[in-house]
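Checklist before submission:
- one chain only
- standard amino acids only
- sequence pasted in full

Submission:
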Amino acid sequence: MLFNLSIENVALIKKADVNFGTGFNVLTGETGAGKSILIGSVNMLLGERIGRDIIRNGENYAYVEGLFYLTPETVKLLETLDVTADEEGCLIVSRRLFLDGKNICKAGGKTVPVSKLREIGQCLINVHGQHDNQALLNSASHVSFLDASVRDSEKDTFHEFDKVYAALGEAEKERSALDIDETERLRRIDVLNYEINEINEAALCPGEEEELKATRSMVKNKETIQENCSLALDMLYENSEGVCAYNFLSQAQRAVEACAQSGAGLDDVSEKMAEFLYGLEDIVGTIHEKLEQAGTGEFSLDEIEERLDLIYRLKRKYGNSEEEILEYGRRAEAELETIQTSETRKTETEETIKKLLAKANELAKTNRGKRQKAAKIIETKINAELSELNMEGAKFSVHFEPCALCKNGMDKVEFLLSANQGEPPKPLAKIVSGGELSRIMLALKNVLVAGDAAGTLIFDEIDSGISGRAAGKVGIKLREISEKKQVLCVTHLPQIASLSEHHFKISKLQENNRTNTTIQLLNQQEKISEIALMIGGDNVTETTVAQAAEMIRKGKQGGEK
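Returned file contents:
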């Protein structure tokens, strides 16, 4: 269950810290007070996609943190996601959203990606909003509702079917890739062979182009290089008359060394001059090397230009560098091998598809039997629920229709409803009003709640379209659900709010020229005043106060029973 919810800088909420109780929690407040902001905060915590506009104006981040008390079953489920609760079965989950769109999400002290936070959230909270009602109107979603009723012990074949169907899809993709026209296959083989031969015959080496450009420059300036290298050597080292820099520096170094030996204190200078002479010898050696290279070039200028031209042509076809050209050649060889062996692979793929298809059909038939069995149980339970929700004449049924193999198996499932006794069942979208839809969804939730991993259920305006006696029945049903799971319910109806065990009021206040939403847990007298306000609006009288107190008293008695 969600014990504590901390919110910072979310829309109109500057800071809020709420401790929810076990059982039935309701949240009330005037339209625009911020009830939707609270639900948005929970969705943010659950890893849902949230826009940056949720960040309070003037702030650079929004932050939501939840403290959960977990059942042993939920602890084990989260361990499969590599999330560990503390020794007391508590888990802290948080998410911080910045203006630049970055998120920092944590669960159990570990940083996790938003996608992982979403998986964790599905184990903690189930949020029912208006979009869930719309899902009921879409018959394509009915099979997922039905499958949710199949107990975990029976889900093995459903999970196995998902894996087999996914593998079947991959195999069919591979078959499509291999299934090319024979003429196109031969044409492609010719093209690949030509490209591979052209690249292999070039025998490129990474970095070759730059080396060739340097060699070309040396060949073009051969005479200048030889003349200047020879001059430098004459001046530095090789002079027939012995008049060169090396000789002069050698004499100077010996003179300084003699001074050092005589105690002149020039030891460091003598060592530095000796090191300088060694460095000069290295310089002379390098100049000698370049002079020899300029005189004995391996390639002529025409040969170098021809080689560079080949590299330029290959770059225009296959890549911007020798490395990219060679990589293109490797890819071409791999594609050629694939095409040449495609007939064998195609035969193997066809055999794989045949086996997977047979397995998928077998599992789909098995799952159909489980669905039909579950459908009968659901029909009985939901019809009993609808009767308790003031829809005594309604009859809910699950219709099956065979279909071609798809991701849901071979079943097209649709929920039907006969709204009144004696009328034929029809699709929900054709006959259901908003109030009926809310009650059908509530009945479904109550039937499926036992198999739901989440310890907290949130109902956002489940009372849409209902009033009077039906509203009271919905409140009682929510109270029943809260005996199995923690329930948080946003409501506008006093009939529902009066049945709560913990009543929170959401208000909008103006302070320091800013609007701020607050969340307050009401005591008994404050709860009476709030429900009286919900009954009479602005016209609160002693009668409405007494009526509110009576509703709360009866609700408490009903809960004790």
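Reviewer check: The longest strand covers residues 395-406.
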